[in-house]
Write a structure and sequence with these properties.
The chain contains ten helices and four strands; from the N terminus they run H-H-E-E-H-H-H-E-E-H-H-H-H-H. It is mostly helical and 278 residues long. It has one domain. Strand 1 and strand 2 form a beta hairpin. The longest helix is centred in the C-terminal third of the chain and has 33 residues, at 229-261.
Length: 278
Amino acid sequence: MSKKRRMLFISVWLLCAAAFLVSALLLKSQTGGESVKETMRDAVLHESNRISFFGFSVNPAVVSAYTVTAILLLFALFVRVFAVPRFKSIPGRFQMLLEQAVGFFDNLAKGNSPHKNRFLGAYVFTAGSYICLGTFFELLGLQGVTTGGASISLPAPLSDINAAIAMGVTSYLIILSGGLSGNGIKGVFSALKEFSLPISMSFRLFGALLSGLLVTELVYYYVGLSFVLPVFVGVMFTALHALIQTYVLTMLTAVFYGEVSEKTPKRQKEKKVRRKKS
């Protein structure tokens, strides 16, 4: 690109930015009378914007959770029936992408839990896929109809505190099962010492995803910020949270699972070794 074209390109973008800024300053906020406090509160608690789901008034995140679960199950069925039988020794693009994703979580499990890692690898792959896809799900902008007849965009499933707690508790139960299978009751007691682990995992996941949702809602609330900027803010926060939270939760689960499942040496063997030395 020549210098003149580059200057012209920059000038056009500056003019567009100036036009958006002027229009934002001239226009007034159009929020339908709802204050920013009510908007933020409803984004967290969903007291007013609820959806009818088979006759039950539920949080919109519940519909998102079932939708993401159905997508994952259908994709897994499609891959198992149509793709896996056609896999070759020299992988294609789809096979290579799938093998890299599976290999990443499998290596994560083996690296942190060398003794018990088969079930752990399957779990961290499932949990990581759900967190990542569930976070990116909100970018689709699928619409739902509230009980009041208004239209609402379906949020990420884990932006609901109940879903985040369920994910944290499930991961903690997996860690407990690792302690039980590796060291029996002693392993369970060792895992129970970290009683704050499910709370920290749940609220870390919920807080990270909710912060992106609240920032996006705040940007959309003010017309002065609702030109172009929400696209960058929404995509940036969603992508960062999807990748970071997927890695953080799976890594923590694998690390603690490996710690409690590692077999501890028995004291009798240690005493025999000491006697032989003496």
